[in-house]
Amino acid sequence: MSQKLENTENLTTYPYPSQRKVIMGKRGAVATSQNLATLAGIEMLLAGGNAVDAAVAMAIALTVVEPTSNGIGSDAFAIVWDGKLHGLNASGKSAKSLPLAAFTNLTEIPSNGWLPVTVPGAVSAWRNLWERWGKLPFEQLFSPAIRYAENGFPVSPVTAEAWQRAERIFLPLNRPEFQHFKQVFFPKNRAPKAGEIWGSELHGRTLRSIANSGGESFYNGEIAQKIANFAADTGGFLTTDDLRNHLADWVEPILTNYRDLTVWEIPPNGQGIATLMALNILEGFDIAQYPRESVESYHLQIEAMKLAFADVRRHVADIRFMTVAAEHLLDKSYAAERRNLINDTAIPLAEPGLPKGGTVYLAAADGELMVSFIQSNFEGFGSGILVPETGIALHNRGLGFTLEAGHPNQIAPEKRPFHTIIPGFLTKGDRPLGPFGVMGGPMQPQGHLQVILNMADYGMNPQAALDAPRWFFVAGNRVLLEKSVSPKIAELLLAKGHEVRVTKNTSLFGKGQIILRENDVFIAGSEPRADGMAIAF
């Protein structure tokens, strides 16, 4: 209660002019966190491609123009509507030869180096999506990204800020395995500034190889061999067998009904189930009776998310290792039990129950297909390892594992880690509304929850739903609030027992995109906290 809040101005309106940014069109729509990537999607649509072509081209372009969040060495997930919903889990497994003895004396998994590196799955996502739905030649989807990589592009402001924050993490790394990474991403021993031209011929060359081989070179060719050789030379564990054996899985999305919406997420090993569990808890409250900017609305949302996270962090893992099934976590009667734990004060420490039985997000839609797609290196640039002669920065998704003995998510060989990246999708009745997503580690299910409530309970359009002030539950009773949240709400949350801090750092609150279709009109929104852009036409 004695905690001092940072000074913040009392904003009576949202900080972003959403009323002037409602983007609409009839033919199709695309949205990403970086304007050049969005244009790559439009380029495919205008060339006669469909929403899957656009989504894959944007994902490939984002590996170049937003390397602080994702890359060729990322993992990826997707949800596609083609008359029904299809889920794709392209996350990779840990190495078969991963030595568990290397973790014996550690209290946490390191964020840099080979220990957190699992098989990258993004390339397999691009290939699988294109094989099933693509219209344009696979090689054509790479052309914008190759152009940006080989000719260079001006680094956008939010990406430049993230790049500069990464200096303190990566510049001090001196072991041999980190030197290629620093040469590519910090060629002047510093991060590029906003507006500076950056490019990578190595990146472009690798994209050409992937394009021309249909992705084979990455998992079963020259690139796979280079990854395995560098691992062998610098203490890594990935082998050509690990890469060759990687498969992206088609999965059935999981769902819950909230108000008149059906909300869809990818099943575990992802954390999208947390959003669905929190919605199930909130379903029993009349959120709409409270103003959007009220302490009651904030308190109920935070408490529901807190309870959902307690279960997710205890039970969710590679689905092959989970001891509690997803359907039990999503049971409405279990949600009612959890709902009864919420009262007028903050729960001091939410415990899991016992039910019975760095990231980029993009969206694309046309008249027949709708795509929700996400890929990530996890913490910013990832592991700090870049494979020589390729420009490929490897992710550190292995940080999603735990070292806790006996936990279903305990690190082990040939296992998928708990994943933070989650694409979302909305339907109403038997018709699709469209894709949505919010990036940002543990902020992702919280961002999903908040934009859904903004639309379902407060009647906001997609752009307004993204623009609205956000909260971020950290752990325990710690909650971060954006500077645009009223100081009065912050003070009242403190009085309810929440440990509140108001921050100006908007990067903590996620970056999202939404495309919805109503009455044959696409309505697209792009995150104001990023460099992105939505286009509908």
UniProtKB/TrEMBL annotation:
It comes from the Bacteria. Signal peptide: none annotated. It comes from Floridaenema fluviatile BLCC-F154. This is Gamma-glutamyltransferase family protein. SUPFAM superfamilies: N-terminal nucleophile aminohydrolases (Ntn hydrolases).
